[in-house]
Backbone:
DNA sequence: ACGAGTACCTGGCAGC
DNA sequence: TGCTGCCAGGTACTCG
């Protein structure tokens, strides 16, 4: 299957790129916003029961996932990359990944509810129409947090050494750095003036330093604006409020960059995804 | 180990 | 208006 096939015909016969409504999906800033909301509302409360719906995630959680949680106190809500970690007394944890369309919502109701967690009078629902989300009790191996000191230009440069894959695919590789997806990889590469298709090993030390700084800058700004919400099937926080970071996006979901130049979609699909960049500003 | 390709899923859209 | 089929995305899998 060639997704690009329909757009590679001769000019004139090529249909205009479909202006698919861009959506913002949960990446680090969105998950962090969810984390704060959940912790604020539920920290210290005791788990009083929950259920996994019959039609659940694409990757079914273990049926016993919630066994033994009843009566345990939610001590902390943590985030690692795009994963949310609910830590209970007795060293029990519940890990959640929102996937593409996953939302955690207080109260409410939805035909796409996959998981319900009750804390006394409070109810937290995991709603996920596309069923790409998941729930478990462990995390995969993940790279450093991009906002931690462990993610620095030296580390990034070393991680890219010898890698022929496009830099954008490497930025979105959760084992290299955790929490970056299509939106913030696109934004960080624009900010750093680097084309998404450039091979990882072709970045200079200076470019790695610039990219590292751009990643931090873009993510910090998005966290402070409580994530990005563009389009309908987009991210909302647990109180179903949109974020404001979309107002700062310079490339993602736009036809002209914040630089004023028309943007281009890379001919090659990177990491299975199409990629947009400014051919004038990104080298 | 690495890189490319693909399955998973469904709302929303273009094109007929 | 209604139908069909494409497309988006993150992760985990396979294959070479």
Residues:
């Amino acid at each position: 299957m060639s997704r690009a096939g329909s757009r590679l015909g001769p000019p004139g016969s090529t249909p205009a790129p479909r202006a698919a409504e861009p959506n913002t999906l949960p990446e680090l800033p969105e998950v962090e916003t969810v984390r704060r909301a959940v912790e604020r509302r539920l920290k210290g409360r005791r788990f009083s029961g929950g259920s996994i719906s019959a039609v659940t995630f694409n990757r079914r959680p273990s049926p016993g996932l919630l066994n033994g949680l009843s009566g345990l106190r939610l001590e902390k809500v943590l985030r690692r990359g795009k994963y949310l970690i609910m830590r209970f007394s007795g060293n029990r944890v519940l890990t959640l990944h929102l996937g593409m369309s996953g939302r955690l919502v207080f109260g409410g109701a939805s035909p796409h509810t996959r998981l319900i967690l009750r804390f006394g009078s409070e109810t937290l629902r995991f709603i996920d129409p596309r069923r790409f989300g998941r729930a478990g009790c462990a995390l995969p191996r993940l790279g450093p947090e991009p906002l931690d000191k462990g993610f620095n230009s030296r580390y990034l440069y070393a991680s890219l050494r010898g890698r022929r894959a496009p830099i954008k695919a490497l930025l979105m590789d959760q084992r290299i750095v955790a929490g970056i997806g299509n939106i913030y990889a696109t934004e960080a590469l624009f900010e750093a003036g680097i084309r998404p298709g450039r091979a990882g090993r072709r970045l200079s030390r200076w470019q790695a330093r610039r990219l590292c700084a751009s990643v931090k800058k873009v993510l910090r700004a998005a966290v402070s604006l409580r994530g990005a919400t563009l389009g309908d099937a987009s991210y909302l926080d647990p109180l179903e409020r949109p974020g404001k970071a979309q107002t700062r996006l310079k490339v993602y979901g736009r036809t002209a960059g914040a630089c004023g130049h028309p943007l281009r979609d890379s001919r090659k699909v990177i990491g299975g995804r199409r990629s947009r960049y400014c051919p004038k500003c990104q080298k």
Residues 1-19 of chain A have pLDDT under 50 and may be disordered. Residues 1, 15, 18-21, 58-59, 99-101, 112, 129-132, 162-165, 169, 231-233, 269, 271-272 of chain A lie near DNA strand B (CB under 10 Å from a C1').
